[in-house]
Amino acid sequence: GLPTSAIQAKLRAEPEARAALPPHMAIMPGGVPIKNGDKIVGALAVSGATSLQDEDCANKALAQLGPRLK
């Protein structure tokens, strides 16, 4: 469960991982995993601004949800 920005960075650093993706697939920042403790229970993705703004918005929304997760 990594944010899409971390996956994008990994793909840039590891060409063999990128080669395993479908040719027209794009990984863009803006998606973050939702965790309850150590368990991934979902994901939240935002799009519409710059990639960095999208991810920041997703993280801020997740921070508001945080107190509801144990």
Placed side by side, the strands forming the largest sheet appear as 1-2
Shape: globular
Distance from N terminus to C terminus (CA atoms, Å) equals 17 Å
The main sheet comes to: 2 strands, antiparallel
Portion of residues in beta strands equals: 15-25%
Mean pLDDT: 90
Give me the strand/helix succession: HHEEH
CA-based gyration radius: 13 Å
Could you name the ranges where pLDDT drops below 50 across 5 or more consecutive residues?
Answer: none
Number of helices: 3
**Secondary structure: number of strands:** 2
Structural class: alpha+beta
Question: Which secondary structure elements does this structure contain, and how are they paired or packed?
Answer:
Layout: H1 4-13, H2 15-19, E1 31-36, E2 39-45, H3 51-65
How would you summarize this macromolecular structure in one to three sentences?
The protein is built from three helices and two strands. The chain is α+β, with helices and mostly antiparallel strands and 70 residues long.
Would you give an account of this structure?
It is a single chain. The chain has helices at residues 4-13, 15-19, 51-65; strands at residues 31-36, 39-45. It has 70 residues and is an alpha+beta fold. Strands 1-2 form a two-stranded antiparallel ribbon. A hairpin with a 2-residue loop joins strand 1 (31-36) and strand 2 (39-45).
